[in-house]
Amino acid sequence: MTPQPNPQAGAAVKAADRAHVFHSWSAQELIDPLAVAGAEGSYFWDYEGKRYLDFTSGLVFTNIGYQHPKVVAAIQEQAATLSTFAPAFAVESRSEAARLIAERTPGDLDKIFFTNGGAEAVENATRMARLHTGRPKVLSAYRSYHGATSTAINLTGDPRRWPNDSGAAGVVRFWAPFLYRSPFHSDSERQECERALTHLEDTIAFEGPGTIAALILETIPGTAGIMTPPPGYLAGVREICDRYGIVFILDEVMAGFGRTGKWFAADHFDVTPDLMTFAKGVNSGYVPLGGVAISAEIAETFAKRPYPGGLTYSGHPLACAAAVATINVMEEEGIVDQAATIGETVIGPGLRELAQRHPSIGEVRGTGVFWALELVKDRETREPLVPYNAAGEANAPMAAFGAAAKARGLWPFINMNRTHVVPPCNVTEAEAKEGLAVLDEALSVADEHTV
């Protein structure tokens, strides 16, 4: 699709937005949202006709890109057949979506509770764990993001929690492994794994194992930095949870459905949680959908005891039809394998090559189409390019980097001192190389702030 400039239409869209739309996570008078005219595949464009290669996949959800014709057609067909129906009934698209998801989840996670998105999935997974165990507390990691509903934001580790933290949500935080910025002063992945597991066991011991309902982890943390856990860590967490009767929840909202080059990131570690949350890539974000995949043991808790939770739009037919089409497209087009291959042969090597040329790159990490560049002022000290949770003038180096990328037609994912490389799972080799070339130029701006 060729973008057609229409500045007048763009001005009208922008004016209505500024007059009436209240945006997430923003000081409303300090933002300037881009008016988007259209999107297709790995690109979107504005009303001036400028096209951007989307290295954010929306908010890391367009796993098959924008406007895939088979998914669009499935939504249209479902709308013509049965556009909506209450969740208490058996509906074909809902049943088929649940079946296809359950076929791909690890182990016995065969029951699917549908939600409208990832935060509600976390909310309900936590509720299930508390009801199943009869215990109040939940453990979560400091470097994490689990959503913006009440329970989910309190489980979150990043600074978006701070203004929302009730201080009474029954959440206990701990340090998960991250060798580059190790809280345990480790010098190897093996040491980091061992010390992180010891720290976790100590936390559980001092909190009282009998008070802890669940432990939640992003399999590979997303917004917090895409830190792949060291070998053995998730297996160790699984063993600790089993020993103390703690429900193990893996949050796959961002990492699931092909993003890491596997259907789920848990598949890289041969670990099965008791509950797994998902959303985003399940239908490429075309219609809001999330859910919880539930183990047989926890499902049995509610076999004859009502589960005290539900949503009006749980398993919405349009959303589920989009999920069915998306999963089938991913199978037919080999998109999960494509994500693994493009990460291994193009994105990973390309980012590591950039690190050889740009002193602002402290570390490259990731897998599939799930990568992060840790940007630093000083490689020796690992001082971040901007301070933790920087804003305004303190964040100027990252803002300049982002502006340089956008000026060259690349829309980057930026969080704190990192840029994440998270294009659609079916990004082509040519598109990936195009994005890497723009990053190469934009990183020169970041280099100006190094010592």
How would you summarize this macromolecular structure in one to three sentences?
The protein is built from 13 helices and 16 strands. The protein is of the alpha/beta class and 451 residues long.
**Structural class designation:** alpha/beta
Distance between the termini: 44 Å
3D shape: globular
**Helicity level, as a percent range?**
25-40%
Please give the largest β-sheet: 7 strands, mixed
Q: How many DSSP helices? A: 13
- Stretches where pLDDT is under 50 for at least 5 consecutive residues are none
Query: Kindly state the mean pLDDT as a whole number?
Result: 97
Description:
This protein is an alpha/beta fold. It has helices at residues 7-20, 57-60, 69-81, 92-104, 118-133, 150-155, 189-207, 233-244, 296-301, 317-332, 335-357, 396-407, 429-447, and strands at 36-40, 43-46, 51-54, 111-115, 137-141, 171-174, 212-218, 247-251, 275-278, 290-294, 361-367, 370-378, 383-384, 410-411, 413-415, 418-421. Helix 3 packs antiparallel against helix 10 (317-332) and helix 4 (92-104) crosses helix 10 (317-332). The longest helix is centred in the last third of the chain and has 23 residues, at 335-357. The protein starts with 6 loop residues before the first helix and ends with a helix. The mean pLDDT is 97.
